[in-house]
Structure formats: structure tokens, C-alpha cells
């Protein structure tokens, strides 16, 4: 196929110049986590009629369509819509004719004049109501910016939906959705994300997907996606050209200047792993990472605790405390014997343990009596910490190690002090009477 090499090499030269300018954006970080029988898919489309590298004149659409095709047992749990483009932003669009207003926005800028944007909306209810079929995003208008961006060959727009679904036949997985708007480029040629709190028991069907903007098939200098230092590739994405305008869900190479790609990583995750390192590089192509989704077969409990009621007898330092331990956002049973430490103003005053194993999405309630030391003041902070041996450390590996405590301010109940009565003197009148 004949290509416009003049435009192609012009873009390389322009990109080499603009990458000397500082770029700003929002770091890609964890947005939401799902633990259970979950999986994910993408749908979306570009607004570019062809890759901008080879456009003789700047052209862009305001409408495009993509198709959702879930299996009969798949139940939509969450659906997140992202749209992006060149310019300062269009934050009001339509999806199947329904008005959509951005809930969260991201931005990036080059040379103070070449702006980029992305927007986000949780559209779960619409996807649940509509189900499978065609979805058309319209009214995404960046036409007033494409002439300026055409000078850099960075004129683009597009949209994508991340769909998280439940299926009772799936194994117990941990699914993480990360988002932001972070550049991988010649100037900032490496992006690293660490997945923590894992307990991989089976690497079967582990995968990672990403939504990226402005990738070009013709620019592939050190353009890689790795996990645990292993470079990933598939039939659509060569090892040195990860951001090349492809959609692995539809097996398309015509997703111009955006990428919706999912990779299998089951040979790059080991059973027993407690973390995983994702790395993306690009030494030439200007690419913006908007969303990353990972799915790993990770089975861990997640212990949380609540103080339900406190009861104290008057003028007593004995308390009766009702509490509940939960294992809600989890993919494994919380074992019996999980330690619980109780503090007053940071001082350890009592220790107990869970008696029964707590199932996934289950809870266990109990009451404990506490003898409060006389050194504790009348007003103090009572704190219960689950999976704590009393030293700030636990014995259970959890999905989230930062949600293990609950506290309340306590005012001890004491009888009021009464004034002493003065002695009374009476004049005896006899027969038990006196004045």
C-alpha cells in the first residue's frame, strides 16, 4: 500500500521537538477493585477516519458506533465510559441519544498550547438496561482543535467503555481498574504500576487490558508492554509496537490513534505471587494511557471490624462491648483465630480472637468484657483492630491491609459528687420528738 512518507517523517521530526517540553497529567492509579467471580471486556471506537500520520488534510467524525456482545450468563456489574480527544475538552456527549455529562475529567498539555483531555462517567445503569447491542457515541466535537493539532499530527478523538461483569461459572478473581491520563513518550519513556495485595493460586486466564490514545502504527521505537519484566505481545501487537491502533476484542487494526487491547499474562504470573509489576515504554511515539484493567485469580480475605455498642455500669471500670468482624470485599474465607486487639488511647488493654471462620461476604458478632485500667482518663478513644497481635502486625494476608480498625470516643459514666451535710443539733422533747 502506498503511504505518505513525507507526512510520516514530518510527524517523527515534530514529535522529537515537542518531547523536550515538560508534560503534565494525572498519574494512573487504582480507581476501583472487584473481588469475586468477575471478568471484563471493552468496547469503543475512534472518531478518526484514518490514522492522523497519513491524513493529507485534518478530518474527524463526531459520531461512531461499537457493539457489546456478552454471554447469556454474564451479568453487568459496572460500566465506565471514557472519551478523549485533542483540545481543552468536550464534556457533554450522547450515548445512544442519552445526554452524558462528565463526572471526572483528565487533562494533559504540550508546549502550553497543544491540549488533550479525557472524561469519565459511570454508565452502569444504562448498560444494564440496554444490554447487548450497538452503542453510538455522538456529539463528541473537537473540530475546532484539529487544525492546530494537525501541525503535530496529534489530532484525534475516540471513546471506550470498560464493562465489568459477574458470571457464577468464573473462578474467584481480583479485578483492578486503574485510570488517569499519563504520558509514555520519548521524554517520559517509562510508566510503572505495581499491583499489591495478591495471593495468586492459579494463573489460568490471567489477563491485562489497557485503553490508550494517540498511538501510531508507524512509530515503534522501544514501544513495549511488560509484566514482571516479560514483554507481552500477540497477533495484533508486536513486541516492539504495543500502541498501534488495534482492538483485540474485535480483532481490528483500524482503531486509528487509540488502542483497546487485552493480553493474556497467565505465563507471566507465578502461583504464590503477592505482587506484580506492570511496565510500559515508548522512546518515540506519543501515547497517553487512560485506563488499565487487570484480572488475576487471587484468593484473599479482607477483615474489617465495627464497634456496635458499648455498655458500662455506673461507677465501674468494666465495659461490655458488642462488635462485629466482616469479610465482605473478599475472595477467601477469613480463618478462625484471627487476632483482635483492643486499645484505649493507643494503649493495649485487651486481646481476643475470632472463634469461627468467616465466609466470603459473611460476618461474625460477639461481646467482650473489658476491665479498663485506672490509668485511663474519663474520656478516651476506644479502638478495635482486627488481624493485630497487639504489636501492629497481623497473621493474615489480606486484600486491603488498611481497613482493619474502628474507634469510638468514650465518656465514662460516674455518679455525681454530692455536698456533705452539716451536723444537726436538736432539742429533745421526749417521746422520740425533737426540735
Structural commentary:
This protein has 435 residues and is mainly beta. The N terminus is likely disordered. The protein is elongated and about 125 Å long. The longest helix is centred in the first third of the chain and has 14 residues. Helices cover 7% and strands 46% of the residues. The strands form seven sheets. Strands 1-11-18-13-16 form a five-stranded antiparallel sheet, with no helix packed on it. 40% of the residues are buried. The protein has three helices and 27 strands. Strand 14 and strand 15 form a beta hairpin.
Strand order of the largest sheet: 1-11-18-13-16
What kind of sheet is the major sheet?
Answer: 5 strands, antiparallel
Strand content: over 45%
Distance between the termini: 125 Å
Q: Low-confidence parts, pLDDT < 50 over ≥5 residues? A: 1-23
DSSP strand count: 27
Question: Shape from CA axes?
Answer: elongated
The chain-level structural class is mainly beta
The number of helices is: 3
What integer is the average pLDDT?
88
Radius of gyration: 30 Å
H/E series: HEEEEEEEEHEHEEEEEEEEEEEEEEEEEE
- Please give the share of residues in helix: under 10%
